[in-house]
Design brief:
The chain contains 1 helix and 17 strands. By secondary structure, it is mostly beta strands. The chain has 2 domains: 113 residues, Immunoglobulins (Immunoglobulin-like), CATH 2.60.40; 83 residues, Immunoglobulin-like (Sandwich), CATH 2.60.40.10. Strands 2, 4, 5, 7, 9 and 10 form a 6-stranded mixed β-sheet that branches. Keywords: Signal. InterPro entries: Ig-like_fold (IPR013783), PapD-like_sf (IPR008962), Periplasmic_pilus_chap (IPR050643), Pili_assmbl_chaperone_N (IPR016147). One of its GO terms (cellular component) is outer membrane-bounded periplasmic space.
Length: 233
């Protein structure tokens, strides 16, 4: 029996495996947004020459203590939860927020689409491939993201922390931290989200960083970031 734990790191690994396959599942769009009572549609394509069984479910994105985790959602459901896709078939899954009460604060989810394993007799192959698509329900007139930054350097490592005091998530990418002589690339691509009213932290080796203030540069969906940080040491 296949057993696996759902985590952000695991989902990233599964997504990479899926991208590496010559033919497999593809999912569009890569970001879903909605309002209360709205339905968000996700198209899944089976690019292979054989039928595949697909499971879809919704997980709540939570950020606490600088870390992100996914827990099962009860407020948002996806229909259908399981489907079989024929070769080269496009299939639409729909995520629905239950109830009609207005969204009072931004709600963050991931729609996890998993290609269920189809083990071949005698091969021992039994792998689940997953895509995790962000889904956000936003209130009207939500305040934009408002990020503040903190860094601490200790025992050859630097911890970078972002706190979002705004009402909307911020997507961060291409994060660099420099002391004027050396630069640490936290991530050349997307570092992920900092949710509304939440804090995220990232740790990297920092033996090359000297004493003194640091300069943080990054990109966000709210524009470029360029701030000076006086780190704790």
């Amino acid at each position: 029996m296949m057993r696996w734990r759902l985590s952000v790191a695991a989902l990233s690994a599964f997504a990479l495996i899926g991208q590496a396959r010559a033919a497999g599942l593809s999912v569009t769009p890569i970001l879903l947004e909605g309002s209360s009572g709205a339905t968000a549609s996700l198209t899944v394509r089976n690019g292979s020459n054989v039928p595949v069984n697909v499971e879809a479910k919704v997980m709540v994105m939570e950020q606490d203590g600088g870390r992100e985790r996914l827990v099962p959602a009860s407020r948002v459901v996806v229909s259908p939860p399981v489907a079989q896709l024929k070769p080269r078939q496009d299939y639409v899954f729909r995520a629905v927020r239950l109830g009609h009460d207005p969204v009072s604060a931004e709600e963050a989810y991931r729609v996890v689409v998993t290609e269920l394993p189809n083990p071949v007799a005698g091969t021992g192959v039994n792998v689940a491939l997953a895509h995790a698509v962000p889904l956000f329900f936003e209130p009207r007139n939500a305040k934009p993201a408002a990020l503040s930054w903190h860094a601490s350097v200790s025992r050859g490592r630097v911890t970078l922390t972002a706190t979002n005091e705004g009402g909307r998530r911020a997507r961060i990418s291409n994060v660099k931290l420099s002391d004027g002589r050396s630069t640490i690339d936290f991530e050349r691509g997307s570092l992920g989200y900092v949710l509304a009213d939440a804090t995220m932290s990232w740790v990297r080796p920092a033996k090359s960083l000297g004493a003194g203030p640091l300069r943080l540069t990054a990109e966000s969906d709210g524009g470029p970031i360029d701030v000076r940080i006086d780190p704790d040491r």
